[in-house]
Design brief:
Blueprint (H helix, E strand, L loop, with lengths): L4 E6 L9 H18 L3 E4 L13 H11 L4 E8 L5 H14 L4 E6 L6 H7 L10 H13 L19 E5 L2 H10 L3 E3 L8 H11 L11 E9 L3 H7 L1 H11 L19 H10 L3 E4 L1 H15 L3 E5 L5 H15 L3
Parallel strand pairs: 1-2, 1-9, 2-3, 3-4, 4-5, 5-6, 6-7, 7-8, 7-9
Length: 331
């Protein structure tokens, strides 16, 4: 397990009673803390029209967190490329890479990161942009790698920057694309585990080496809630499960304190839906985490584990990051 990289995904989630500024400060604090623990990277996800998520201006947030940290990699998990012109993203991330060389990642997703009405607002009523995702990824690569001074459209800053691209996904389509392009692949098992096993197998078996990557590199994003005892971890995890219940029932709320029972207790339909959505969730003390995660990694040939952290209490949130790190890097 010492060779497995450990990272974090953050949405700058707004907690109950908290402002957006405080949510961003919490993200900075978390990034600084996991940097000290030796985490490889922290990524921020692009979402829109969601009152309790403060990562919509993802590039801006990445720059802010990069400025407040020293060496941990900072990136997008991801930029929803169909929402943007590839040239704009090349310029934004070229700027970030110029300011923070060797520290910026660019994870790319096809989904809108929002509802269809908001997607129409983002994409100027052109919802067909998602069908050109592969072309947009290739265009983005061209902007970064262009060595033709006579090209009519070039990305400044951006050109000549060696910014690693990652394909993000929650289905088998993304696995095929990442394998075809020879790029690292990150799967969103933290909320869409249904196709996780199939996507992992497709990516490994069909991967084509490229100038970017000579062998598959697979990141699994999962929910891990760790605490000093398993009983406490299970209690803290109710905040996560209640949040997902709100998403499924379209009653979105800020991240709230844990509850003695989940809010959907006694409602089997919601219980089943939440269970299916959070199947890749691990809760427990250090011993439980040290047993469960290595087995999960071995089963799916995972190169890097990326954890979410939907723990309400700020101190317990940091404790969880520490316990996970200690559990996975035992001698």
């Amino acid at each position: 397990m010492n060779k497995i990289k450990l990272s974090a995904l953050d949405l700058a989630t707004v907690c109950k009673g908290q402002t957006v500024k405080e949510a961003i400060e919490r993200s900075v604090e978390g990034a600084q803390y996991i940097e000290e623990l030796g985490y490889e990277r922290v990524w921020f996800a692009e979402h829109h029209n969601m009152e309790h998520i403060a990562s919509s201006a993802t590039s801006v947030l990445i720059g802010h967190v990069a400025e407040k940290t020293k060496h941990i990699r900072i990136g997008s998990g991801g930029i929803m490329l169909p929402n943007h012109a590839p040239l704009v993203i090349a310029e934004q991330f070229g700027t970030l890479a110029s300011l923070y060389p060797g520290r910026i990642d660019l994870g790319l997703g096809r989904a809108p990161g929002t509802d269809q009405v908001t997607a129409m607002a983002l994409r100027r009523n052109n919802l067909n942009t998602s069908f050109y995702f592969k072309d947009d990824v290739l265009a983005l690569q061209q902007y970064f790698e262009n060595d033709n001074p006579h090209e009519k459209v070039r990305a400044f800053p951006g050109e000549g920057q060696h910014i690693p691209l990652y394909i993000l996904g929650s289905s088998t389509d993304s696995a095929h694309l990442a394998a075809e392009l020879g790029l690292p692949y990150a799967f969103a098992a933290h909320f869409a585990p249904a196709m996780f096993a199939q996507a992992a197998e497709i990516y490994r078996k069909t991967f084509k080496p490229s100038r970017h990557l000579d062998k598959p590199y697979f990141i699994a994003c999962v929910n891990i809630v760790a605490a000093e005892t398993t009983v406490e971890a299970d209690f803290l995890a109710t905040s996560l499960f209640n949040m997902f219940a709100g998403i499924l029932t379209n009653h979105r709320r800020p991240l709230s304190p844990p509850t003695e029972k989940v809010i959907y207790d006694g409602i089997p339909e919601i219980e089943k839906a939440v269970h299916n959505m959070t199947a890749c969730t691990f809760t427990g003390d250090a011993d439980v985490i040290a047993a469960q995660i290595p087995a999960f990694v071995n089963d799916y040939q995972i190169d890097e584990v990326m954890t979410t952290n939907y723990i309400f209490d700020a101190g317990k949130r940091l404790d969880s990051f520490r316990i996970i790190s200690e559990a996975l890097h035992r001698a």
